């Protein structure tokens, strides 16, 4: 009996062995079949396949490593030390630069996988490979749905094509030079995952970089998040920790710069792992929910090559009720260079002017004069034929989807001013009714401004109904043209009056809470009282302590 068992075991083992050989053979064939197509992808496989794929990937050959000659300039092609980059292994270890408290955080187990989009034009093979390899080495496998390389018409078409042998990597190649912006749009359109991660092509991601970013998006998909960007030294390729007390800022010429948090803001930050809200993102590296990216209208596709797109997308995110954050527990290194190594077909300065001018024209309204003052060369410059259609489309987008910038509890100079017009276009118009009667304005002799009364509603459109037409604005004013609903005194029973609107006057702010209209400064409710004791139709409009059962405090805003 025991002998029979042993035989059975041997037999089973032999079958398993043959089966494994057949599978291995098929697996190899499948891998070979996938090469050379565009767009195409590496085979899907388990983690175990990954090592296998790395073994097959002939790194030295891909890098076409060669001996550097004495007089050769290693900075010539890429404006960083190419020789040093080639000397450093693609999977080198780097220091974990996070605050030690980050290592104690726990992340959700249901984080969404992401499509990582890396666009490049004539990138050094060594830095591009290190970017990809650091992602594959330092990201949980199940969170990387795919890595989409968008080769923006590099001189050598093989740069991208050879890399699809790596796990999860796909390659798209543009047929002509499109620039970063249109390349990213192309990558995003092809992405299969629900979250998009944009990475630059000369980065190295650090330990657990992706988890806190995805976590933030899982919490609220309108967050657009960016890591702290560490510095990879362009001469030595040393990985250096950047300060995590920085946020993005800009001057009126629309030049991006890093800004120190103020001492007050720093003092408020008791938890170093908390996100830092930022007016502007640097633009190279960020994570965004795909549906939200599409909802915002993606990028301005008429922008060329590089630059300005980070302002444009940042303004859009804030104005449409999202937020931009730097997540200190996420660290990604980036090779910062002193100049662009590649060619701008229309010239570097011209392209930057065109792109930022589009941003100013589309988003900055009267504040664009500051832009022109800071960048006089932009005046009279062309900025693309699609301008008008683009602007109209974007304004529709904002108005339809109701940006709620002011609902954000905070603001910052500069950007706050930029959004003024956006907010002014946000209002609702209609009647404010109490059963069959409506708030009405009535001119009266000897008064500077019309008085506010309650009169039977007029539903047919015309001059009569105009006196019952109110506008409720984003900043909680109840307006009749240039006049705002206000009160005479802060005491109960005080009459509601119309006064010229004044921005920031608390007496002119009203909040709709259920069927009540609450006066913000006093917390009393809009109420009606009979005048004298006979005429039921004549009621005056006052404020009184709120009472949930009082019919005279029930209002309906019939707004469009
Ligand atoms: Mn870069």
Automatic annotation (TrEMBL):
Pathway: Protein modification; protein glycosylation. Its main location: Golgi. It catalyses: L-threonyl-[protein] + UDP-N-acetyl-alpha-D-galactosamine = a 3-O-[N-acetyl-alpha-D-galactosaminyl]-L-threonyl-[protein] + UDP + H(+); L-seryl-[protein] + UDP-N-acetyl-alpha-D-galactosamine = a 3-O-[N-acetyl-alpha-D-galactosaminyl]-L-seryl-[protein] + UDP + H(+). Its cofactor is Mn(2+). Its EC number is 2.4.1.-. Keywords: Disulfide bond, Glycosyltransferase, Golgi apparatus, Lectin, Manganese, Membrane, Metal-binding, Signal-anchor, Transferase, Transmembrane, Transmembrane helix. One of its GO terms (molecular function) is metal ion binding. GO terms for biological process: protein O-linked glycosylation. It is a single-pass type II membrane protein. It comes from the Eukaryota. InterPro entries: GalNAc-T (IPR045885), Glyco_trans_2-like (IPR001173), Nucleotide-diphossugar_trans (IPR029044), Ricin_B-like_lectins (IPR035992), Ricin_B_lectin (IPR000772). Residues 428-558 form the Ricin B lectin domain. It is found in: Golgi apparatus membrane. GO terms for cellular component: Golgi apparatus; Golgi membrane. Belongs to the glycosyltransferase 2 family. GalNAc-T subfamily. This is Polypeptide N-acetylgalactosaminyltransferase. It comes from Anolis carolinensis (Green anole).
């Amino acid at each position: 009996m025991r002998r029979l068992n042993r035989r059975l075991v041997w037999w089973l083992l032999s079958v398993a062995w043959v089966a494994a050989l057949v599978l291995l053979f098929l697996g190899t064939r499948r891998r070979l079949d996938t090469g050379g197509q565009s767009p195409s992808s590496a085979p899907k496989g388990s983690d175990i396949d990954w090592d296998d794929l790395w073994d097959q990937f002939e790194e030295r050959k891909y890098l076409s490593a060669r001996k550097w000659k004495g007089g050769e300039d290693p900075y010539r092609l890429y404006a960083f030390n190419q020789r040093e980059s080639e000397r450093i292994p693609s999977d080198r270890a780097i220091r974990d630069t996070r605050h030690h408290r980050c290592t104690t955080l726990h992340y959700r187990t249901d984080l969404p996988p992401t499509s990582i989009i890396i666009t490049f034009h004539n990138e050094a093979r060594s830095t591009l490979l290190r970017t990809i390899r650091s992602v594959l080495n330092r990201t949980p496998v199940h969170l990387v749905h795919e890595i989409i390389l968008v080769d923006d018409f590099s001189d050598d078409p093989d740069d991208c094509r050879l890399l699809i042998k790596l796990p999860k990597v796909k390659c798209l190649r543009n047929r002509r030079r499109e620039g970063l912006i249109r390349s990213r749009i192309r990558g995003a359109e092809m992405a299969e995952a629900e979250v998009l991660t944009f990475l630059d092509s000369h980065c190295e991601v650090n330990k657990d970089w992706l988890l806190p970013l995805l976590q933030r998006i899982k919490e609220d998909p309108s967050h657009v998040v960016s890591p702290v960007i560490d510095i990879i030294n362009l001469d030595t390729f040393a990985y250096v920790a950047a300060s995590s007390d920085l946020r993005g800022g800009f001057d009126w010429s629309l030049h991006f710069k890093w800004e120190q948090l103020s001492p007050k803001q720093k003092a408020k930050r008791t938890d170093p792992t908390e996100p830092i809200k930022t007016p502007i993102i640097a633009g190279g590296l960020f994570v965004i929910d795909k549906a939200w990216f599409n909802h915002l209208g993606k990028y301005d596709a008429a922008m060329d090559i590089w630059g300005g797109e980070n302002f444009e997308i940042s303004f859009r995110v804030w104005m449409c009720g999202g937020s931009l954050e730097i997540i200190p527990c996420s660290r990604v290194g980036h090779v910062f260079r002193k100049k662009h190594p590649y060619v701008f077909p229309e010239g570097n300065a011209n392209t930057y002017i065109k792109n930022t001018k589009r941003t100013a024209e589309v988003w900055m309204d009267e504040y664009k004069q500051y832009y022109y003052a800071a960048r006089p060369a932009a005046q009279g410059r062309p900025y693309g034929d699609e301008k008008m259609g683009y602007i109209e489309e974007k304004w529709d987008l904002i108005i339809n989807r109701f940006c709620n910038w002011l609902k954000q509890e905070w603001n910052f100079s500069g950007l706050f001013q930029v959004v003024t017009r956006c907010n002014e276009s946000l209002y609702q118009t209609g009647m404010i009714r109490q059963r069959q009667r409506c708030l009405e304005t009535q001119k009266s002799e000897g008064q500077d401004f019309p008085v506010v009364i309650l009169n039977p509603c007029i539903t047919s459109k015309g001059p009569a109904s105009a006196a019952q037409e109110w506008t409720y604005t984003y900043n909680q004013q109840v307006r009749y043209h240039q006049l705002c609903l206000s009160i005479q005194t802060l005491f109960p029973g005080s009459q509601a009056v119309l006064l010229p609107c004044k921005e920031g006057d608390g007496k002119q702010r009203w909040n709709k809470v259920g069927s009540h209209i609450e006066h913000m400064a006093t917390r009393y409710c809009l109420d009606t009282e009979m005048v004298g004791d006979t005429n039921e139709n004549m009621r005056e409009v006052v404020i009184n302590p709120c009472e949930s059962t009082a019919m005279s405090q029930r209002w309906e805003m019939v707004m469009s």
